[in-house]
Amino acid sequence: MDRVPELISAESIAARVRELAAEIVTARASDPANGFVVLVLLKGAFVFAADLVRALDERGAAPPIDFISVSSYGSASESSGSVTLEAHPRVDLAGKDVLLVDDILDTGRSLEAVTRWLRDQGARRVRACVLLDKPSRRVAEIAADFTGFEVPDRFVVGYGLDYDERYRHLPYVGVLDTP
Ligand code: IMP
Ligand code: MG
Predict the structure, then answer these.
(1) Which atom of ligand 1 sits closest to the CA of residue 155?
(2) Residues 6+ apart with CB under 8 A from 108
(3) Which residue in 12, 14, 26, 152 has its CB near the most CB atoms, within 10 A?
(4) Which residues are catalytic?
(5) How far apart are alpha carbons 123 and 52 in whole angstroms?
(6) 85: part of which helix (H) or strand (E)?
(7) Is the pTM here over 0.85, yes or no?
(8) CATH topology of domain 6-171
(9) Which amino acids bring their CB within 6 angstroms of ligand 1?
(10) Alpha helices of the chain — where are they, by DSSP H?
(11) pLDDT at 77
């Protein structure tokens, strides 16, 4: 298999993840001291979240972690209009502050749907942290509270992101020219 061309190096990601953890802890300093829950959007965010929670630990934050899964994809690279929740978190979200962790904010449909669902569950405050943002593709009116990197309108893989379940294992973010 040919090497996927690199867009963001593993070193740049590691440095940015540490900065994001610092931003998150700083933002939470003004919140009520009721703690927060990290909710990881599977599958794409699993690598990012694993690094982020350890960077949060370095900053003294020790949130509970749970997982949520949505399906929104008609094909491997284009999201459909409807987003379905497939796996629900087990933690009780009523009154909780939630940090939603996702791999990439593309059209924004997934994040919008999940945020609405979390509010319906009674979450007090929902903040989103995404590794990547492709602002040129936005359909839903939603922004992340914490963003690792803005990327151009290319199909990116690696560091958890896949194309047809491939490339998630890459330690860097690369570009696929023909998704
Ligand atoms: P949205 O609902 O369109 O914002 O889609 C977000 C989801 O689509 C992400 O969590 C990814 O799983 C997937 N996605 C969007 N763009 C890409 C990409 O360039 N590479 C890999 N997955 C992507
Ligand atoms: Mg995803």
Answers:
(1) 19
(2) 138, 139, 140, 141, 142
(3) 12
(4) 106
(5) 21
(6) strand 79-87
(7) yes
(8) Rossmann fold (3.40.50)
(9) 44, 72, 79, 102-110, 155-157, 161
(10) 10-28, 46-58, 109-120
(11) 55
